[in-house]
Design brief:
- The structure is a single chain.
- The protein is an all-beta fold and about 110 residues long.
- The chain contains no helices and eight strands.
- The chain has strands spanning about 5-15, 25, 40-45, 50-65, 75, 85, 95, 105-110.
- Strands 1, 2, 3, 4, 5, 6, 7 and 8 form an eight-stranded antiparallel beta sheet that branches.
- A hairpin with a 5-residue loop joins strand 5 and strand 6.
- It is globular, with a radius of gyration of 12 Å.
- The two termini are about 25 Å apart.
């Protein structure tokens, strides 16, 4: 069982059409994070458009993967707010678990 350890949670208004889902990166404007940009953090609860989204910005968060990921690998946000191995752009954190494919959940230490 994966456990989260949020050290700092903030909120931002959800601007994403259709809302956002838990365990995805969210940007500073309130939409899903996208490749090449720094996210605010990880969504902590499913949230409808216009509502305030709780966001884990420090600590250990659980995220959904876009690709296979190795333990200790640097993580970046991928389009639709999922986690991907870092290639270019800002580092969001480091993988604490491995994922063998997309759409799995892993813990990351946010930076």
């Amino acid at each position: 069982m994966l456990t989260e350890q949020p050290l700092l949670i903030t909120s931002i208004q959800c601007k994403e059409t259709g809302g956002v889902i838990k365990r995805r990166f969210i940007d500073f404007q309130g939409s899903f994070g996208s490749e090449g940009t720094k996210s605010l953090g990880v969504v902590n609860a499913d949230t409808n458009q216009g509502e305030m989204v709780p966001v884990t910005v420090k600590g250990i968060a659980i995220v959904q993967t876009a690709y296979a990921i190795s333990v200790g690998q640097a993580i970046q946000v991928f389009d639709d707010g999922t986690a991907a191995p870092h290639t270019t752009g800002p580092i969001e954190g480091y993988a604490m678990d491995a994922a063998s494919a997309a759409y799995q959940f892993i813990r990351i230490l946010l930076v």
